[in-house]
Amino acid sequence: MTQSLAPESYTRFLSDAAKERKPSPIRGLYPLEARPGVISLLAGKPNATTFPFTSIKLTARSPTDPSREIETEVNGKALAEGLQYGPTAGLPSFCEWVYELQEREHGRKKGEGWRVSIGAGSQDVIYKAVMAMVNPGDSVLVECPVYAGVLPMFQALHCDLIEVETDSHGIKSNSLRSILQNWPSTKQRPKVLYTVPYGCNPTGMTATLDRRQEVLALAREYDFIILEDDPYYYLYYGDAPRYPSYFTLELKQPEVGRVLRFDSLSKILSSGIRIGFASGPEPLLQAIDMHTAVANLQTSSLTQAITYSLLDAWGYSGFKAHTETVSRFYREKRDVFEGALRRHLEGLAEWSTPEAGMFFWFKLLLGGDEGDSESIIRTKAYERGVLALPGTVFLPRGGKTAYVRAAFSLLAEDEVEEAIKRLRQTILEARQS
Ligand code: PMP
């Protein structure tokens, strides 16, 4: 039977800063205002009658028929909530939508030892989670290559970044096991593992079911929390049915509560709207919220209200229809990009076909030894008018790599063709020199 990790167990996973953080003396009392009959002199909220907004009208594409527009409006109580300070973890109406989503997508029911917190994008909640869990100098497990956006978080804390090998099937669980088995007895064990399981940034890889299960089993055996950063979950376009998330899979483990999941609406609704959310064990979410209460009080109520208004008008089936359209869009982009790779870089580069996300990760075959893409991509390719990212950017501990990350999300077909031809010329020139 699945048991939840006891709340006290999380003390080990909290950073000293999180343990020492005092709750906001005001925000914690907000719920008391709701008791009927209470006259509240508590919060320094501005009087909403002075706010000039009277309604916010939205027009959006219908998720089932893109030629049609649907209109919705944020007004009345929803507008009042959107314009005012609100709960630290997020606007209640929007949080309810997220609970429903997580139940439908990941089989996680509200009230079963986990909760959500809304952030200004997933980056916001990832950063706060890292600060809530990692102490200066801690060892942290990070997949390698890794999303470059988390490296500065760990570097600023002078963490010992333990690179966990990956391939096109995700984290190599055997390598992870070997790291943990050979962990020096005098060194503090890692408390977290960071991974992007769908359409990884930068490698495009999607972790297979076996690998996910093995990593989860190791989390239990070696007592760490998996930071499941999954902004490309809805951008899965593989042929096979999708794999369950870590957040789902842990329900089948003897113990639940080892996954802190991050979702993002950036890749499916808008990146500028800045909405992401963390879902996971109550004590970790509480630590994230305590950081928010100090850092920015809360994520914008208004963006949450606007987002909710659209999602509510669409309904869950509309949301699904929309995400399917988005993933089909990226699948076509992937196919166009791969077509150009085949035409122009066969024998000059190696790659695996991504099944999710928006990145190709390819290895330049420069002849001779392993090679290094750094100067070729940063200088030579740029001189020829093509800009990509050398793989070094994504190596937690630095070093050389012949890999390159190319984003295929934005380009039109003719631009892809031209970019890959330019890369071909660059590689041919490098092979000659
Ligand atoms: N994680 C990964 C792996 C990403 O690629 C990104 C976006 N580049 C983020 C987190 C942050 O996304 P956002 O804050 O827009 O939700």
UniProtKB/TrEMBL annotation:
Q: List the signal peptide residues.
A: none
Q: Which InterPro entries match?
A: Aminotransferase_I/II_large, Class-I_PLP-dep_aminotransf, PyrdxlP-dep_Trfase, PyrdxlP-dep_Trfase_major
What Pfam families does the entry give? Answer: Aminotran_1_2
On the tree of life, the source organism's domain of life is Eukaryota
> What biological process terms from GO does the record include?
alpha-amino acid metabolic process
Would the keyword Methyltransferase be found if you checked this record's keyword annotation?
A: no
- SUPFAM superfamilies in UniProt: PLP-dependent transferases
Q: Where is the Aminotransferase class I/classII large domain?
A: 82-423
* Cofactor dependency: pyridoxal 5'-phosphate
Gene3D superfamilies attached to this UniProt entry? Type I PLP-dependent aspartate aminotransferase-like (Major domain)
- So what family is this one in? Belongs to the class-I pyridoxal-phosphate-dependent aminotransferase family.
* Name by which UniProt lists this protein: Aminotransferase class I/classII large domain-containing protein
> Which organism does this record belong to?
Postia placenta MAD-698-R-SB12
The lineage, from the top, is: Eukaryota, Fungi, Dikarya, Basidiomycota, Agaricomycotina
